[in-house]
What we know:
The complex is a heterodimer of chains A (247) and B (280). Chain A is an all-alpha fold and 247 residues long. Chain A has helices at residues 2-12, 34-43, 46-78, 80-94, 102-109, 113-137, 141-149, 154-191, 197-206, 210-242. In chain A, helix 4 (80-94) packs across helix 6 (113-137) and helix 5 packs across helix 6 (113-137). The longest helix of chain A has 38 residues, at 154-191. Chain A is elongated. Chain B has one domain: Rossmann fold (3-Layer(aba) Sandwich). Chain B has a six-stranded mixed β-sheet with strand order 6-7-8-3-9-10, with helices on both faces. In chain B, strands 2-1-4-5 form a four-stranded antiparallel β-sheet, covered by helices on one side. In chain B, 39% of the residues are buried. Chain B is built from eight helices and ten strands. The longest helix of chain B has 26 residues, at 232-257. In chain B, helix 3 (108-121) packs across helix 4 (137-149) and helix 6 (195-201) runs antiparallel to helix 7 (232-257). At the A-B interface, helix 7 and helix 8 of A face strand 6 of B. Bound molecules: adenosine-5'-triphosphate and magnesium ion. Residues 46-47, 159 of chain B line the site of magnesium ion.
Amino acid sequence: xxxxxxxxxxxxxxxxxxxxxxxxxxxxxxxxxxxxxxxxxxxxxxxxxxxxxxxxxxxxxxxxxxxxxxxxxxxxxxxxxxxxxxxxxxxxxxxxxxxxxxxxxxxxxxxxxxxxxxxxxxxxxxxxxxxxxxxxxxxxxxxxxxxxxxxxxxxxxxxxxxxxxxxxxxxxxxxxxxxxxxxxxxxxxxxxxxxxxxxxxxxxxxxxxxxxxxxxxxxxxxxxxxxxxxxxxxxxxxxxxxxxxxx
Amino acid sequence: xxxxxxxxxxxxxxxxxxxxxxxxxxxxxxxxxxxxxxxxxxxxxxxxxxxxxxxxxxxxxxxxxxxxxxxxxxxxxxxxxxxxxxxxxxxxxxxxxxxxxxxxxxxxxxxxxxxxxxxxxxxxxxxxxxxxxxxxxxxxxxxxxxxxxxxxxxxxxxxxxxxxxxxxxxxxxxxxxxxxxxxxxxxxxxxxxxxxxxxxxxxxxxxxxxxxxxxxxxxxxxxxxxxxxxxxxxxxxxxxxxxxxxxxxxxxxxxxxxxxxxxxxxxxxxxxxxxxxxxx
Lengths: 247, 280
Ligand SMILES: Nc1ncnc2c1ncn2[C@@H]1O[C@H](COP(=O)(O)OP(=O)(O)OP(=O)(O)O)[C@@H](O)[C@H]1O
Ligand SMILES: [Mg+2]
């Protein structure tokens, strides 16, 4: 439906083809189409390489965020004074869109990979912190009591009860943090990097190839959906089932 | 004496420096190998008493002694079975049962053996690798009991362990628990809302009054085992306990609904026969 409307608008010729390229049927024989460019650039490896670069960055930045988020979350749940200080700030930090950090990142790390990683990590860390601290704080007391009477305490209690009992919260944290990271990396790459889908998007704009831009947007949407559905949603469902919650 | 409570008081802090007095001057003993039930209206402090003995809470005044020694923290000589079982959903049945054993200095084979013995005792050997969410309510409680028993506790503390189960399952588990108790000789403190359950299982029933909780009366059940709920001794006791509880419940309800509320004793009596006081 949307594709149909798009095709009609494109063919009516209100806009030049480079600005409003058709998706499937070329406007003139041998002309550009979004699908054609998409397939072409996948075959030529341009999009594949860019996707790879983006995903590697994303994975590194996201991992840093997860480790930091879990650590902060634990400290907030464990120590009242951390909760009063950091815990308070995190709520504020969480509401800052991560791209706002970009000017700082450039000054601190220069234009390049490090800045992108910083943006991604900082975009995902705070939600991860909030979710994991909620998880750690709300371990059902029945599990704690049961474990304690069975002789558990200290790091054994942390490892065998507190962390596993927080898994449902941690996983929903992962899912939201991933979404933040995904948005952050696009913004970051678009503004300043070499390689990656965001960079390719910017390149497409500068050479006025909207067919390329649209192809990349499709790739971004598809990858985002697949990862959310296949990885995080599945994890969430599996955990909810085992932990006896209704999905 | 296995367990002794001496002049135990317990207060909880409420907001604005207010205090909620939950237990007032609790005194009672449990003999070695004795099965004692604690009965009383909701909120009278039964679970609090159990947690004090378990070492999960501390007294405001007075002391709790187990084997003559003051209790101040949890220990594996006292194991609790909770109402919802408190099984860890991220572990299999077997991992749940062996949880406490892994913390003892024991060899792998010894742990495995004890775990399997425990599961056999509650007839769940075929479910060793299942997860709790795959089990029925009754099976979960049996796993919880196995998890407690493998620890060879000197005192078994049970907080309404069968309250969430249907009548049939509960009767089966009563039988199993009595067999286990006969074979192990554990000292058991059993909390329940069900008068008949208390009378079928226990040597002694302690009745609590409410707000602040006190031990109001102690009933010794002098009836041969295995118990028959139709036994005249039990039927007679049931009536006496019920009468005492009605007085307590009236107090609770008056507090909740205001003084003009009058407790309809007749209504309760007429429905007694089928399911006498199973949910007070
Ligand atoms: N940790 C706590 N902090 C504050 N108040 C508490 C705490 N634990 C229990 N209480 C209060 O103490 C009172 C007694 O609670 P307790 O759980 O011992 O009652 P109970 O006799 O086991 O009731 P039920 O039959 O409903 O299980 C209740 O009013 C409860 O609100
Ligand atoms: Mg209770």
